Structures are given as C-alpha cells and as structure tokens.
C-alpha cells in the first residue's frame, strides 16, 4: 500500500491543488454574484450586511462540523459537498428569475448562500487533513507553501476577475459559470487516490466515541492537552479583535493618504497580497524547523506589528511607503501562518485533525466580528489611523507576551 501511496503522492498533490483552486474561483464568483444581486435588487446596506453576518457566523461555528470531517471518508466528503455546491449554483440561477417574489428570492438565496458557505467550511479543513497523509513530514512545509503561494496569486486578481464576469455577463450567466467551475473541481477531487484505511478510523476508541457531541468534546480535550498550541491560539484570537478594527479603518485610511479613489484601497490590498505571496515563496525555499516555531512567532508577529505602526507614522510625510509597510506586514504574517499550520498537521493524529482544524478556525476568527463592530465606532469617533495603529500595537504586545512566556518555559 505504501508503495502505491508514494507513487501517487505527486499526482495527489497536483490534483488536490487544482481542485482547491477551482473551488476557490467558484466560491469567489458565487459570493460576488450573490452580493451584486442583493445590491442591485434591494438597494439596502442592511441586506448586504446579512451576507457578512452569515460569513462571520459560519466561521465562528466551524468547530461544529469537525466530527463530520473526521467521520466521513474525505474523498467522498469532497465529492458530495462539491456536487451540492454545483446544484446550489444552478438553483441560485433559477431564483434570479423570481422577480415577482423578491422577498421569497431573498430568503431562498440567503439559505442557498448559507449552505454553500457551510460546504466551503467543510472542504477547506479537509485539505489540511489530507496533506499530512499524502506528504512526508520533510515535504510538508514546502507543499503547504506551494498551496499558499497558489492562493496568494489567485488573491491578486480573483475578486477583480469575478467582478468583471458579473459586470460583462448577466447574473444568471455568472452563476452558471460558477456551477461549471465547481463541476471542474469535482472532476479533480474524483481523481484523488486516498486509501480509506489511511484516513478513516476503524473502531478507533481513542478519538471516536460513537456519539457526535462526545466526539466534538474529544477534539477540545485533545487540543487542551496540547498546551503549546493552545497557548499560541488564544492570544492570536485576541489580536484578531484588533485586526477586525483595522480592517474597517483601512479603506478610509487609504483614501485619506493615498488617493481619494477606490484604487487606493485596491493598491493596498494588492501590495498585501504580494507580501503574502513573497512570504509563501520564501518559506517554500528555506523551510523552517518545528523546534524554532516559538522564536518564529515572536519575530514574525513583532515585525508585522512594527510594520503596521510605521504605516500610520509615515502616512503624512511619505504616503507611498504605506504600500511598502503593508507588504512587509503581510510578508511576516504569511511566514508565521504557514509554519503554524505545519505544526498543527504534525502534532495531531489524522483521525482528529478535522476537529482540531475547525476548532482552531473558530477560536481565531471569533473576535473578528466584534472587532469589525468596534472598528466602525472607532473610525467614526476617533480616526482610521488610530484604528490601524491598534492592530500594530496589539501584534507587538502579543509578540512580547509570547517572548516572556517562552523564555520562562525554557
């Protein structure tokens, strides 16, 4: 069996990567199309906010789906979920024609969006569960970097591409294109070679109890027992509160110090994507030892925070350097995130990795909606610069906290 795994390893990585890229493209197009439909049909910011609330709520509740990811044969999970997303895209196309029943269309489209987003919430952790099973530990960092590199390249143009498709085609045609791309992803997922006994449990009493809620709690218990990882996650969740605050201030900050047009914010996002891309590229070449992770977190988070603070400090004197420091911040965060992901994959048994990944996601993302709410108040009553500075200060303080804790442990 292991000879077959080694023989198909490279093919598996390529097939999984292409499938995930197709899923990302289809997801983005689905999201932009739904968003644009709500904007042009209802002309209400409150309706649009429902989409963001759905995203945040599902991210926060991702841990609920962890046992499902661990219980089901992953290849079947990828296939069935993608089939569902393809059908939902076709169904959404039909709903666009319910012009006489706008309220009904709104409810059904929100439900469709919720189901498709839940599908993505299931698919993304599945990749993290698959990679350690098909890639050796020595190659895990490079393969994760390759995946992140591909996603960063997509980030450079994906939303713009989706917007162009929605602009130049009708909403219904854009959604059909989304369904077609989901179908392409399905074709690649179907080609994955994943022996069931490599991933699926067989009477594994250590990680499965036979009851869904107990299996869910088992994931929390296993994570709790891994003290180092939990110690890393909790402060990052608090730091993300300030990321949520800064994300609201960023468009206002960009238009104030760069240009008044939307291109200023777009440029800031572009340079951030380039920074993340460079971080992924660097880490794929040099690799990082697991034993150095604590030092990496301190250095990367500290330098990212300093970069964000410098963005606001030089905004009045040399505005163009804002782009450089935005790139720098994303660069260091990218390096930290990839190494953290590798640590998670190496530290836990594949039978429980679905639960660990979704619990981590829930913890880390739970503070962002609160931060976004506070960000609106801070930007309105203080300034966008102050909102962004809070993120940099929080990252530096968290880095110092890690430094003190890790030094105390050693």
Counting DSSP E segments of at least 2 residues, the number of strands comes to 0
User: What separation lies between the terminal Cα atoms?
Assistant: 42 Å
CATH architecture assignment name of the largest domain: Up-down Bundle
Structural class, judged by helices and strands?
mainly alpha
Order of helices and strands: HHHHHHHHHHHHHHHH
**Mind telling me the CATH class of the largest domain?**
Mainly Alpha
Question: How confident overall, as mean pLDDT?
Answer: 82
List its salient traits.
410 residues, mainly alpha, Growth Hormone, Chain: A, 2 domains, 16 helices, 84% helix, globular, disordered N terminus
Describe, in short, the structure shown.
Keywords: Cell membrane, Membrane, Transmembrane, Transmembrane helix. It comes from Lactobacillus kitasatonis. With 410 residues, the chain is mostly helical.
